[in-house]
Structure formats: structure tokens, C-alpha cells
Amino acid sequence: MALVNEHLMKLPDNYLFTDIAKKVNSFRVTHPKADIIHLGIGDVTRPIPEACAQAMKAAVDDLTRPETFHGYGPEQGYDFLIEAILRNDYAQRGISLSPSEIFISDGAKSDTGNIGDILRHDNSIGVTDPIYPAYIDSNVSCGRAGILGTNHQWSNVVYMPCIPENNFIPELPTQRVDIIYLCYPNNPTGSVLSKNELKKWVHYALANDTLILFDAAYEAYIRQPDIPHSIYEIKGAKKVAIEIRSFSKTAGFTGVRCGYTVIPKEVTAATLTGERISLNKLWSKRQNTKFNGASYIAQRGAAAIYTPEGKEQVKAMTDYYMDNARLMKRYLDGTGLKVSGGENAPYLWVKAPKGFTSWQFFEHLLYEAHVVSTPGVGFGPNGEGYIRLTAFGERKQCEEGMRRICQYL
Amino acid sequence: MALVNEHLMKLPDNYLFTDIAKKVNSFRVTHPKADIIHLGIGDVTRPIPEACAQAMKAAVDDLTRPETFHGYGPEQGYDFLIEAILRNDYAQRGISLSPSEIFISDGAKSDTGNIGDILRHDNSIGVTDPIYPAYIDSNVSCGRAGILGTNHQWSNVVYMPCIPENNFIPELPTQRVDIIYLCYPNNPTGSVLSKNELKKWVHYALANDTLILFDAAYEAYIRQPDIPHSIYEIKGAKKVAIEIRSFSKTAGFTGVRCGYTVIPKEVTAATLTGERISLNKLWSKRQNTKFNGASYIAQRGAAAIYTPEGKEQVKAMTDYYMDNARLMKRYLDGTGLKVSGGENAPYLWVKAPKGFTSWQFFEHLLYEAHVVSTPGVGFGPNGEGYIRLTAFGERKQCEEGMRRICQYL
């Protein structure tokens, strides 16, 4: 008889965004005429850059002619995209990487989930709290997270609180941790790490032989000069960090599906006998076994992001969202609510009025202002008492939503 | 210190198609002017159907307008594609499935690899020999395959020989096996299972509480009426089988990346205490955690396969390849070589002349006829003494290749 992976059964049946959808639906039943404004899910709304669209249509045309047809591509991705990435995302920031250190994929969620395949099931993991839930869930599903305690914490997970007392910047763990997830600019708090802050983490990792999984999906939203876009801007990071990037938020690719992961040749982890193994080589084996490359069309679209027109259009798009964030922040600041984020990230992290839990504030905003937010507690215990608002909406909607919230408050 | 998954290190460094590429490259160095004909890798060469191209270009256009923009899609896939699949691939064959039993993905290789995530690491597995290597490799990489013996067999894998004595149709295992991989029409032998043959496997699975992973990637090449296109044509299969499908070979989507997996609600596996768990629900959890849906563009392209024009164009394409197969078979039959497959599958399984190993025959074909084949031993020990030829080439190339082989022989 075939046996199931029982670890997967430990994952809760209720998924944050499904719960939100259910609550929105019940509201809709009783308020069929309400004009709901969605600032909850972190999904983009602006059209993809015209340069990407043109490139993808040309790529489709390539597939219609025998002489330009593309079948299976290289599992690691096409050179035309890898080279554009190396040149623009790294060389221009003084980071030297080789083509074989870049792995193109169908998106950051696949990579952050699947990267666990190359690591032992009993490594301890460290996460900031609050955090994007998929990091923990993917570890729960293979048993790496351990057992869920009555305190809602997993036994093999070290939680690093991001709270107002530390300006939502986590402190280094006091114990050794094998693998640490960092996401900067941060989802959900919208906070960022300065170069000096990030240095501390790289030094911790070097000193403790820790692997850092650095999620830089929101780097295109960084506006201040001192904020590193890549962890490899820190000396020594190539020895300890894997960086995961996505075109989803950079260029509106949430529906196109393309991202990439950087695994420098120097990053190693150990066998039980202490032998150091290149994670680049292991990930390459994993991908060769279980992945057949990202779509040729999506890769052509992604490469167009790096053309002069593409860069301009991406800048205009991320500027649009950041203008939303600024506008939203201005409104909310006026209400006396405590708001952080929104300066180098498309997320606002809003403290609920005194006495409100995340879900209570969520419901009030839904019923009184017809605005959908995301309850902060859905991102972890330290998210309790907060909501997350995204700046990915249409300008008028964002403004109208804020007006209603101000009115209600 | 982070520890690696040491099971991944058991995978051989040399990958079949990389080895082939190396041998071809050395040939090229010594024969720079040779016109090499590639009938090795199972990749398509014909343009994608015009209907799919039109649909994908329209999908790209959708992404350029705010009112038709598509961001994150449903993790399980869009209804427009799921419904087309249900209607055309299943209802028309008398198989009733519900939308939530279909999971759209970026391709069959991802699904056949990742499906192991929902199953315990110590289930025994059964494979035909020869076999598509990724089935075994994905099990090796999580420890499920056990230890590699001196006989080149993994300790937790039951091998079911496909040899001339059984007409390349495997016999039921004499022992219980937890999970069995079946791929029909078969890669690499090109053999098929009749309805009666497939029935035996479903009955075995029902009697032994075995899970069947049925890879039907080549079903579009079936030409005879008695050959089942889906395992669910067999009564009872919904209790024991997961079916994996791909648009890669159906519509030239190897570069587009789209496929799907069917997990009926009735398929269950057990916990250690004997509780039966729905694999549909577990896979849904796995995908929600580690996957963000297939590309909107690819899904629109795939849906176009099911339009009247799409169907006609797919038929023309698969007919083209099957005409290649027929032509190739006719040539090879004339040489006295023993050839099977090629009637309901785009692969020819060719016995090497007496005394030749797979690699020796491969090298002879390369150096004497300038034709690239795939050594059968790359698919497993029982592939020794065979080569695989694919019918996915351009017509003139296939014919010229056969002419050269005949001349050389």
C-alpha cells in the first residue's frame, strides 16, 4: 500500500488568501451593490511593459517557423536572458557572476519551495516574524519545520520578531541556525535593510556556517541609494547566500511566470561527514531531474526588460506603484495610524487602532470602507494587530480606498 | 552548519543526453564538414499549430491592457483550459471527471518529479526497464530508490523487463509494489498497451493497493482503435491511478511549457496508522505551497489545441511525425534490423546488429552514417543492445538519415 507524506498533512487547511476571499464573499452577499476596493493580495494590476509584449509576440512567431522554432531549452535558461541578467542586475553593481551561477525558472515561489530539495530534512531554519507564509509551509511539508507547538510556533524554526521596538528590523539569532530566510525589501512589512544591516547577517552566516536564502523579489522598488539590491553587494555573501529573484513585481509578470535564482559556485553545505558540497551543482542536478526549463516565450519577454525601452517602461511601472504607496501613506499618516513601509517597497504595514486584532480591523475596513486588506497575523504571530495594504492597485482605486478609510476612522 | 540532501549526490554526474552531446562534439571536431542528422533527443521540430500561436499572441495582448490584464492565476489552472480538457480528453471518451481533479502545470517533467513530494520516502517503486530516466532519478534524489547495487539496480526499485520475449510488454510484478510508473505509448520502446493489457495493471493495483503513475504524454500518437488514451478508460482506475499529460508532444509545446495532471478524488494512499488520505487534496496543498500556476499565455495556447482549427492542426502535425515513423520503419525493415514501435508512438526501438552494444552501434551510426541516435542502455539495463530513433525530425532529414543507415549496413 502506498503511504503518504504525512508532513504535508500538518499544513493548515485554511490558506490566508482563501480565508480572505471567503470573508469578502459573505460581505458581498449582504452588500451586493458595494464597490469593493482590493488592496489585499500582492498582485500587480498594470499592463506588462510594451517592450516585453513585443518580444513575447516575436517569440511566439519564432515558434511558428521551422527555422526559428525552439523546442526544449537549456534547463538552466537561455544565454540571451542569463547574459542580460549578469550585465544589468550584477555587473553594473560591481558583482561578478558567471552564467552557470544563474538558474532561470518559472517563478520565485517554485524556487523558494523547491530549494529545500537540495538540503537535509533536519536543518534548523530561521525566519523573520511576520513572514511570507510559503517559506515556512514548504519546510513544514517535508518535515523540516518540526512539530507545531501550542504557541503556534514550529519546533525546528527560530523566529526573529520584526516589531516596532526594533523598527521591524530583526535581530541576529542568539543561537546557531542552519538556514535563514531573508526577504528584502520585505513582504509584508515593507521594511528594508541598509548595507550595514545586511552586512551583519552575512557576517553572522560566515561565522556560524549558515546558509542565507535571500529573496529579492521587490528590489526594483528600492529608491534610496544605500539599500543593497543584491546580497552579493556584501563582501563574503557569495560563500553563504543563495539569491532568489522574480520578474513578477518588477515587470508585472505574475501571470507570465519567470524568475531566477543565483547560486554562486562558492556556496557550499556539508555532508554528515563534513565534506563540503557545491549547492550550485546540487541545484543543477535537482533541476535537471525535475524541471524542463522556463518557457521560451517568457524568457524572451524577461530579456526585453533589460532593453533601453524595457528599462524605461519598468521604471514607469514601479514608479506608478510607488506613487500609489506615497499617496496612501500620506492619507493614512493623516489619520494618526502608525504606518511603516512604502518607501522602498510596495507594501504598507499599518498598526490597527488600539484594541483591534488584525482580523477585527480587516473586517471593519471591509464593512465600513469596503476596502480589502490582509490581516497581518496571517504572516505570523508578530503580525497580530497589523494589516498589510498593497500599492499595486489602480491609482484612483488606491485614492478612493484611502479616502474611505479616513472617513471611517 | 547547513547539511545537504545526500541522496541527490547519488545521482550520476553523467546525464545521458550530455554524454551524447559530448560524443557528437568530438565527432564534429574530426569531421567539421559532416552534415549530421539528429534523431536522438525526443524533441519536436515542427512549428506550433497556428491556432495556438494566434491564441498566445492574443493572450500577450490581454496583458498589455488594464481591463484584460491577468496577474496570478488560479494555482490549479484556468477554468477555460480545464473545461476544454474535461470535454475533449475525457468526456468524449466516456470519462467523467470534475474540474478540481485537473491540475495544470508547466509540464510533465515537473509533475512526474514533484509528485513524489506527496508520498512517503520509503514506498517501494516499480518501473519498466527500459524507462525514461527521470522517473528513477526523482526517486533517487529523495532516497526512495534506496541503494545502487553492483547490478546497476536500486534496492527499493522493482524492475519489470520489456524485452523481445514479452513483446516489450512488461509482466506484472510477482511481489507487492507500492507505486508503479507506466508510460504508454512508451518512451523509449514505442510499444503500447491494449485495453486488456492495461486492465491487468489496474486490477493488480486494486488487488495490491498500489498507486499507478500513468504517463500519457504520447497519447496523441495512438492510431489504432483498441489502445486506451487514458488509464481512466479502465473501470476502477480512478481509485488507483494518477495520469500525467503533456502538450509538449501533442502540439509542439516543448518550448512553451504546459501540461497537466489528473488526480481523481477517489485516489487515496495511507498514513502509517492506515487512515486513507485523498491524494487530490495533498497535491493541491503541495501546489499551493510550491507553485504559482502555469503561464496565462501558455494556458491560452493550450486551450486553442481544443478548437476545431487547433484539432486539425494537431492532427496534421502528429500525422507528419507518424508518417516519418512509417517511412523510417520501412527503410529499417529493409535492412533486416529488428525494429519495433513507430505505429502508435513516435519512437523506433532498434536492435543493434549482433555483437554490438548500444554505445557501439550509436558510434557506428554517428561515424558511418552521421546519424545521432540514443543508446538504449541509457534507459536501463534491458535497453542494452538497442538504440532509440525518434520520428520528430524534418521529413527529408529522416529519409536521408535512413538512406545513409541502409547504405552503411
From TrEMBL, chains A, B:
Substrate binds at residues 15, 42, 109, 132, 187, 292, 388. Keywords: Aminotransferase, Pyridoxal phosphate, Transferase. Its cofactor is pyridoxal 5'-phosphate. Pathway: Amino-acid biosynthesis; L-lysine biosynthesis via DAP pathway; LL-2,6-diaminopimelate from (S)-tetrahydrodipicolinate (aminotransferase route): step 1/1. The keyword Transcription does not apply. The modification N6-(pyridoxal phosphate)lysine is found at residue 249. GO terms for molecular function: L,L-diaminopimelate aminotransferase activity. It catalyses: (2S,6S)-2,6-diaminopimelate + 2-oxoglutarate = (S)-2,3,4,5-tetrahydrodipicolinate + L-glutamate + H2O + H(+). Belongs to the class-I pyridoxal-phosphate-dependent aminotransferase family. LL-diaminopimelate aminotransferase subfamily. Involved in the synthesis of meso-diaminopimelate (m-DAP or DL-DAP), required for both lysine and peptidoglycan biosynthesis. Catalyzes the direct conversion of tetrahydrodipicolinate to LL-diaminopimelate. This is LL-diaminopimelate aminotransferase. It comes from Phocaeicola faecium. The lineage of its organism: Bacteria, Pseudomonadati, Bacteroidota, Bacteroidia, Bacteroidales.
